[in-house]
Amino acid sequence: MTDRALAVVRAGALTTVQDRGRPGHAHLGVPRSGALDGPAAALANRLAGNPPDAAVLETTLSGCSLRPRSTVTVAVTGAPCPVAVDGRPAAWGAPVRVRAGSVLDVGAAVRGVRAYVAVSGGIAVEPVLGSRSTDLLSGLGPAPLTDGAVLPLGTPGERLARVDAAPQPAPPGELVLRVTPGPRDDWFTPEALRLFTSRAYHVSPASNRIGLRTAGPALSRARHDELPSEGMVLGAVQVPPDGTPVVFLADHPTTGGYPVIAVAHPADLPAAAQSPPGTPVRFIAVRRGLRTGGA
């Protein structure tokens, strides 16, 4: 049995393996998946001495606990949270040495939603379609972590980041999403288009890796006929029958039959990954005004 491995002591609410995902397979019905907060995952890898595409662990709200079988360097980024090794406080957002047999505990998020745990050498589960990411929608990639699971580790690199700590953006107090109108904004009434970019929504507890669901004013449709299924992209803001917008995230479906009122700017989506339920959400049109609807 190799000593380059990581035993899961406490899996947490939802901890998955993620890397940069598997873009380019939408024609096969496969979402891109990958870390929802890509900059935080890349920073964790840098601090742990890994290449930016190495696989990390993405925790959700409650963290996880891990026991390496060999001495490793780890880094925890993303949602601020307490970090401890064998019960003693350790650094968040900085390289931490964890000896073989010690327990690294990544605690519950103090702010934000998702923490990223990079381990020197990276998580070396078998790739599927070029990625080690867990995809909750299609089921591709490794299953979410369970207590007692053992994860293989790759060979560590020769260099670690020469920093004591790295600055990271705080989880947003208000989520502001820049959106480009369309392609189906003409399926909504002028009043719905006004509400969409003028009223505050809130993050719904039903949000997940597939989409950030919102609660707020329902958007009325100008057209009520059936829309044939069409391709969906990362950041698409789809409006289901209840009228409240859903922002598609990394595990989104590749097709959908509800109208897409706008598409969110990709640079704003990492903040969406760190917005807990109840966070205010505002949609800001990046073109001058939304179209006023029509048949």
Automatic annotation (TrEMBL):
Keywords: ATP-binding, Hydrolase, Nucleotide-binding. The keyword Transport does not apply. Residues 27-292 form the Carboxyltransferase domain. It comes from the Bacteria. InterPro entries: CT_A_B, Cyclophilin-like_dom_sf, PxpC. It holds the Pfam family CT_A_B. This is Biotin-dependent carboxyltransferase family protein. It comes from Streptomyces edwardsiae. The lineage of its organism: Bacteria, Bacillati, Actinomycetota, Actinomycetes, Kitasatosporales.
